[in-house]
Write a structure and sequence with these properties.
The protein contains 4 helices and 7 strands. It is an alpha+beta fold. The strands form 2 sheets. A 5-stranded mixed sheet has the order 3-4-5-6-7. It has a two-stranded antiparallel sheet with strand order 1-2. It starts with a helix and ends in a 12-residue tail after the last strand.
Length: about 190
């Protein structure tokens, strides 16, 4: 390639770059709705983490809220069951209809759950209890513990075979595990 041809090609390439590839200078152009899904800087978003049962076991879902969910608020949402979108993903609940209210109170690093009936009388008790315990542990609990470190004390009514409450934790995979060396205390009916 001759020097003259090289210079011509280089000049043409430089002219193309300097011309901005034919894009005219314009102002902002309307292109649809503003971006969504991102939080505004400085704003706070709260969610309740609920646990349902899917084809592959316990699965967490997130529901937006206006303030941090207490364990009672999170359990009330859980008891309503999965919404339409969650059901479309194959999520169900294994918590049977309960004969009375499911109550929860939070203290520093712990949640006390008061069941309206014994677990042995709950159909689907194991998965249903996992849903209840993990939902309560992932709610707003005083003491700044991470959910796997929150003690969930389960109180059963009229438990003749053993002490109540018994203490459980929800691990990061959504599995409920007993707390070793937890000392049961006598149940007080509230």
């Amino acid at each position: 390639m001759s020097r003259r041809l090289q210079l011509t090609v280089l000049t043409a390439a430089l002219a193309t770059l300097l011309a901005g590839c034919g894009i005219d200078a314009t102002g902002p152009v309307e292109a649809g709705a503003p971006a969504s899904g991102l939080r505004r800087p400085g704003s706070t978003t709260y969610h309740a983490q609920l646990y349902f049962v899917g084809p592959y076991g316990i699965q967490a879902v997130s529901r937006p809220l206006g303030s941090p969910a207490t364990p009672q608020q999170a359990l009330d949402l859980l008891l309503k069951g999965p919404d339409d979108a969650e059901r479309a993903r194959g999520l169900i609940t294994e918590i049977p209809p309960l004969p009375g209210p499911l109550r929860a109170t939070a203290t520093t690093g712990a949640v006390d759950i008061y069941l309206p009936q014994q677990i042995a009388k709950m159909n689907g008790g194991d998965l249903g209890m996992s849903q209840i315990v993990c939902t309560a542990a992932n709610a707003h609990v005083p003491g700044d513990r991470q959910p796997p470190a929150v003690d969930v004390r389960v109180h059963e009514p009229d438990t003749p075979d053993g002490p109540s409450p018994w203490t459980l934790r929800c691990n990061a995979a959504g599995n409920v595990v007993p707390v070793p060396n937890s000392t049961p205390t006598p149940s007080t009916d509230r």
